[in-house]
């Protein structure tokens, strides 16, 4: 398998993700999050004295891009549904953080398979990239469902 095949597969996967994300973002907004926000407790964040020593969780919470994505997601119907599912699973994630994890696994699993294809020649088949993308796409939903069913 040559590099051109890998590049074409990666571009196609990215295009499919962008199309799916665009369709999901085009839905109408809902005021469910506004009602939920009234009852949610907000905590005041204290500035960290050692800003250079903050962990990845703190860096994600202070990310401006993630905050903007969260605002967009919360205005959509699927964002309210996703927030409800995350709350049922008792996870301390925002819907935008969950979406970032979802995108990362969808792209990361096929990339991991490409890296592993150096040692395992069987993974060089393009069909395994598609299967890896599907597994990466379904993995966060499976994890969320397991957490939710374990809690309930």
Question: How would you characterize the overall build of this protein?
Answer:
With 152 residues, this protein is mainly alpha-helical. Helices cover 71% and strands 0% of the residues. The chain contains seven helices and no strands. α1 packs parallel to α7 and α6 packs antiparallel against α7. The protein is globular. About 6% of the residues have low confidence.
Secondary-structure content class: mainly alpha
Shape: globular
The number of helices is 7
Q: Overall mean pLDDT score?
A: 74
Kindly provide the radius of gyration, computed on alpha-carbon positions and rounded to a whole number of angstroms.
18 Å
User: How many strand elements?
Assistant: 0
**What summary fits the major beta sheet?**
none
| DSSP strand content | under 5%
Stretches where pLDDT is under 50 for at least 5 consecutive residues are: 43-51
Distance between the termini: 46 Å
Helix content: over 70%
Topology pattern, helix = H, strand = E: HHHHHHH
What is the gist of this entry?
71% of the residues lie in helices and 0% in strands. It has 152 residues and is mostly helical.
